[in-house]
Amino acid sequence: MSEREKLILGAITELAAGMTTVGLYGGEHPRAGVIVEHLTSLLGELLDQEPELAFVLLGEELFVQGTPVTRACRQAPSVIRRMRRRGLEHVGFRPGVTASELHAFLGELASTDDTVVQNRPHIQVGKVEVSEIELGGPDESSGGKKRRKLASVRDRIAVVDDCLTGFASGAGLAVGDLERVVKAVHDSLEDDPDPLHHLAPWEGEARWPAVRAYNTCVLTVGLALLAGVAAALRRDLGLAAMLVDCGKLLVPADLQTRDLELCGDELELIIDHPKTGFQALLSAGNLPPIALIAVYEHHLAFNGTGYPRLPRPRHPHPTSRLISTAVAFVTLHTLRGGRGLGTRESVAAWLIQHAGSALDPGWVSALQELLEVEPV
Questions:
Q1: Which of 128, 199, 207, 229 could serve as 224's disulfide partner, Cβ 3.0–4.6 Å?
Q2: Is the Cα torsion angle 128, 133, 135, 140 positive or negative in sign?
Q3: Cα–Cα distances in Å, from 276 out to 244, 284, 297, 306?
Q4: Angle at 358 between CA 356 and CA 361, to 5 degrees
Q5: Is the sign of the CA dihedral 11, 13, 16, 21 positive or negative?
Q6: Whole-Å CA distances, 179 to 40, 94, 228, 286
Q7: Is-cis flag, bond preceding 316, omega within 30?
Q8: How far is CA 326 from CA 101, 190, 219, 295, 363, in A?
Q9: Which of 216, 232, 147 minimizes the C-alpha distance to 183?
């Protein structure tokens, strides 16, 4: 590895550390000052003979000066996640960048709200404007580049289905595509905050994993919005909800279609799917930590029972409690309802019966309020 490559990896590492430190402790923390000072020095060396040091995000890959660095640097996924959250595809550092500029830049990247990252004299940023047409199917105006509409629920389900199918086949997880779907859900809910108005209908067994993932995302983001959760965290929750049952995609297809009817040895085969999903996502990168927590704990009951089986019962993480309630509702409302096995009243009765044992009573109460609005 050349000296320049070491400097670039060092700059990425300091960027990631700076965003984390400022996010956790604030910009005035002494550790933040040390990181900014070190980052200023590294960038100064890198820019000594260059007009700009460009960080470019393309899909799942981060490039620095045209060279991919995601696999070469363990901290690159953290930088990718922060850039994507702020809608940035390009960050350019120019000669003369100062510590004060870097300090303010890190603060905006680390913010938990919708703070806009500003251009500065020696830091130029480019934003990704996500339109209604974003991924997939051919579009002549784009020079033949494939795009896909995200305007309708059916279009979003198609994107989720493609992503989950690719993940199950071992082709990797298109985190960026899922995040665009989450953003589309988030924007729809800001216009109409009742999540029951945005749920996808039953589309049959083949599309059930995608519909389940999408509806769990809608309900999770909707409840978080009604509870006053910050926008950036709402989007992280939505991504976590979308992936919560990914482990089931890695078990035999026959068991997936009969997940409500399993018993005995078959049930034991599927009980491990939270661990399976957790292990698979560890190598995906670019995921918020709460996604891994929710995948591992979404079948852990509010009272500490369920699975994975724990040596000592405890409450699940708050993220898991919210998403587990959403999963229960979606399974009863969409899956059983789509098969003609569930009604709105039976869903409400089941939720009430299991509040305080399997489910968080606070989120059950919130869902009860939603169930009392006019039927969708």
A1: 229
A2: negative
A3: 11, 13, 12, 16
A4: 35
A5: negative
A6: 31, 30, 21, 11
A7: no
A8: 42, 19, 6, 13, 9
A9: 232
Q: Which residue has the tokens 């603060």?
A: 107
Is 0.85 surpassed by the pTM of this model? no
Mention every residue, 6+ apart, whose C-beta is less than 8 A from residue 4.
Answer: 46
Helices (H), the chain: 3-25, 30-46, 76-85, 99-110, 153-168, 175-191, 208-226, 231-243, 253-257, 264-271, 273-282, 289-297, 318-330, 337-338, 344-354, 361-371
Structure-block tokens of residue 296:
């591992």
Cα–Cα distance between 34 and 36 in angstroms, integer?
A: 6
Only one residue has tokens 């852990």, namely: 300
The encoded tokens of residue 67 equal 């060279």
Q: Is the dihedral of CA 186, 191, 193, 198 positive or negative?
A: negative
Task: Please tell me the predicted confidence (pLDDT) of residue 324.
Answer: 92
199's CB contacts (< 8 A; 6+ apart) are 215, 218, 219, 330, 333, 334, 376
Residue ranges in the chain whose pLDDT is less than 50: 128-147, 260, 262-264, 266, 373-376
d(CA 216, CA 199): 9
Domains and CATH numbers, the chain: 3-127 (no CATH), 153-371 (1.10.3210.10)
How many CB atoms are closer than 10 A to CB 169?
9
Neighbours of 353 (CB within 10 A): 12
d(CA 101, CA 98): 5
The rounded distance, in Å, linking the Cα atoms of 104 and 24 is: 15
According to the model, what pLDDT value does residue 341 have? 58
CA dihedral (96, 99, 100, 101) in degrees, to 10, reads 50
